[in-house]
């Protein structure tokens, strides 16, 4: 047996780091002309700093100094290209989507958490997933959940009233809103009751929260460990994860296993099958759904999958993976967005008063509860929602990697280190790219001179006459839900 001493291990580790560094220096040469912040550490770059600070504020300040495209030092001397320019973003997320997939290490993490669902697949497989998922996320179908949303909001309001009992005290709304959105997603997605607002013990809920706690570890060791995974072949990392999983991987795998088991149990209870066996079918050839199962997303998804060409159907594993995706990604983002809306209304009493007046007028006409069209008629509330989504995006950045050499065009030219003005950025194959959502949503060239301030009324003008030639977002030209074919389906 070969036994390595500590010195041998140290030399081996140093050699690997040196080799990786030389490789990265060669790979990042296309960005040498760009400006950007100096690295606070060669090993950590600015990656660890961004884990411990408000990412949106830090990137916004760098963008003001270096422009809408600049290089950011990453771990082991790597340079990451940060873009907030609309034309560059359009090329990465829409025009040349296939040339800019998620990086291999990020895809491995997505697969581990969510399975082989819509977030993980790419290319033709992604189109197949979206086609089957689309009926469950149509606007008409989503409106049917309005009574469900209202009932949970009313219940949360009652719990807050009981906790306050007429007294003035502080309530941390964020965990409460996360519980409410988890209950809503569970019932609307696959008719599953988490009972999070009730605080009932739930194995799946605990597994979900255990995953979220992993993100709280911002130690340099974790930063480096995740960076090292970028240079390990996927076949090797998958083998390691299957046979010798780390403690964090065990937590992640437990959530995926439990969410898959619960989804399969719900389908069985409803008499729905994923393997296309002969069952009691409806007129369209799809399996019939029992009473009370006509609306939830999983049931609609199964029916839509059945009517697809057999060669284009999702597998059982792929359908069940959508549930873990909806639970984790859906409730978390919605909970934080609701929290920011409440925060901004509290911070701006004039907007709160206008929204309150709109609610009051509707309640006088319809005290039993509002319809979707009545919500749509609340003009100022709609402006507030748009501004909250612009000003407080829950996901501040997206990570992509160039699969070939390319040139990213810029709508807003930048200046290089030598003072040269350029309108395009050449990049090399393998270049990591950080799409800066938060900064794009605050660009003065798009949103006006007060772009870094709260102002819902801006959308009264921008909706009719946008300030940019390039449209990148799915909703109100915001990048909050990403953009292009891989934009947020929900």
TrEMBL record:
Pathway(s) it belongs to: Secondary metabolite biosynthesis; terpenoid biosynthesis
Gene Ontology CC annotations of this record: membrane
GO molecular function, one term: monooxygenase activity
Major subcellular location class: membrane
Protein name: Cytochrome P450
PANTHER family from the UniProt entry: CYTOCHROME P450, CYTOCHROME P450 12A4, MITOCHONDRIAL-RELATED
UniProt family annotation: Belongs to the cytochrome P450 family.
Superkingdom to which the source organism belongs: Eukaryota
Keyword Ion transport attributed: no
A Pfam family this chain is assigned to: p450
Biological classification of the source: Eukaryota, Fungi, Dikarya, Basidiomycota, Agaricomycotina
Positions bound to heme: 488
UniProt keyword annotations, A-Z: Heme, Iron, Membrane, Metal-binding, Monooxygenase, Oxidoreductase, Transmembrane, Transmembrane helix
Swiss-Prot/TrEMBL cofactor(s): heme
InterPro entries named in the record: Cyt_P450, Cyt_P450_E_grp-I, Cyt_P450_sf, Cytochrome_P450_monoxygenase
Cellular compartments annotated: Membrane
Coiled-coil blocks: none
